[in-house]
């Protein structure tokens, strides 16, 4: 287990290093002007020396204790990035636990209703949830709330921005939709695998109650597989976070990260393709650290819950 955790950390260091090398790639262009000073064309040529200069210029202030500089609001970039990251975590952390608890409950329900008419509202709804993009559900929920507001049934809701509790709650719900169905599917598969195990057949022959068999034995052993998917769940949450924050104008880390990575689509001068590399690096660091933590948790779960991962038999 310790080797797996060390391997995960090394992979994170290598991945973050490659990302930083890409972020600090030189973006200066050679602009060709006409006799009257009009723009003719622009040329880009990669230079290893310029790349090295960018790396040096980026790390020198850090080593000198000057930080990453200041943003457009004259705030320290690292401080502002962390503040916005906390605002996004206000969505991600509750959505993580909500999707796990509801996903497990949905998976158990799917398993219990896998035969008969209730399968329509059980397993088939899970398949539908995995097949349809969650953006469709988000738009339908928003349209439904708008309709209720027009009819005067629900009024006074503020669903956009980050200044109201209802906006935070709805964004948590939006963020949980796809991971919920994903976890439900994982739970159903885990229970289905346990259902045919020899120890289940033995316990059933001894007269163990179906409730105890499901919740004490099958679910407990099946949940070991769920924790292995921790990093995948977190990746789903972070990828959906960019869409949801942009769609609802929730000004968190994903929203500002998108603003900083946006490059102008027209050339004004030789610096037209430049971006705020310090801000992008700060947000990239925080996002990748969350992925690293999820990966470490996944490796710990493997070591603690799966015997063969500890080198044991059985």
TrEMBL record:
Residues 85-298 form the ABC transmembrane type-1 domain. Gene3D superfamilies: MetI-like. InterPro entries: MetI-like, MetI-like_sf. Keywords: Cell membrane, Membrane, Transmembrane, Transmembrane helix, Transport. It is a multi-pass membrane protein. SUPFAM superfamilies: MetI-like. It holds the Pfam family BPD_transp_1. The chain crosses the membrane at residues 9-26, 88-109, 168-191, 226-247, 280-305. Its main location: membrane. Belongs to the binding-protein-dependent transport system permease family. PANTHER family: ABC-TYPE DIPEPTIDE_OLIGOPEPTIDE TRANSPORT SYSTEM, PERMEASE COMPONENT (PTHR30465:SF44), INNER MEMBRANE ABC TRANSPORTER (PTHR30465). This is ABC transporter permease subunit.
């Amino acid at each position: 287990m310790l080797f797996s955790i060390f391997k995960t950390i090394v992979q994170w260091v290598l991945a973050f290093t490659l990302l930083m090398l890409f972020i600090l790639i030189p973006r200066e262009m050679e602009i060709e002007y006409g006799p009257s000073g009009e723009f003719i064309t622009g040329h880009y040529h990669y230079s290893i020396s310029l790349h090295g200069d960018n790396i040096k210029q980026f790390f020198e202030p850090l080593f000198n204790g000057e930080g990453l500089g200041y943003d457009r609001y004259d705030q320290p970039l690292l401080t502002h990035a962390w503040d916005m990251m906390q605002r996004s975590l206000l969505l991600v952390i509750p959505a993580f636990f909500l999707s796990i608890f509801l996903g497990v409950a949905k998976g158990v329900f799917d398993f219990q209703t896998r035969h008969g008419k209730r399968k329509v509202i059980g397993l088939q709804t899970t398949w539908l949830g995995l097949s349809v993009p969650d953006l469709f559900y988000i738009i339908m929920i928003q349209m439904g709330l708008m309709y209720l507001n027009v009819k005067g049934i629900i009024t006074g809701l503020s669903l956009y921005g980050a200044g109201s509790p209802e906006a935070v709650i709805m964004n948590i719900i939006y963020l949980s939709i796809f991971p919920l169905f994903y976890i439900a599917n994982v739970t159903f598969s885990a229970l289905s695998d346990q259902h045919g195990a020899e120890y289940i057949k033995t316990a059933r022959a001894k007269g163990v109650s179906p409730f105890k068999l499901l919740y004490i034995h099958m679910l407990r052993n099946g949940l070991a597989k769920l924790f292995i998917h921790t990093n995948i769940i977190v990746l789903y949450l972070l990828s959906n976070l960019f869409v949801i924050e942009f769609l609802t104008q929730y000004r968190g880390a994903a929203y500002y990260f998108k603003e900083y990575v946006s490059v102008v689509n027209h050339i004004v001068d030789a610096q037209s393709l430049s971006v705020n590399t310090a801000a992008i690096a700060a947000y990239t660091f925080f996002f990748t650290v969350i992925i690293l933590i999820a990966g470490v948790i996944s490796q710990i779960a493997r070591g603690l819950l799966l015997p063969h991962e500890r080198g044991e038999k059985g």
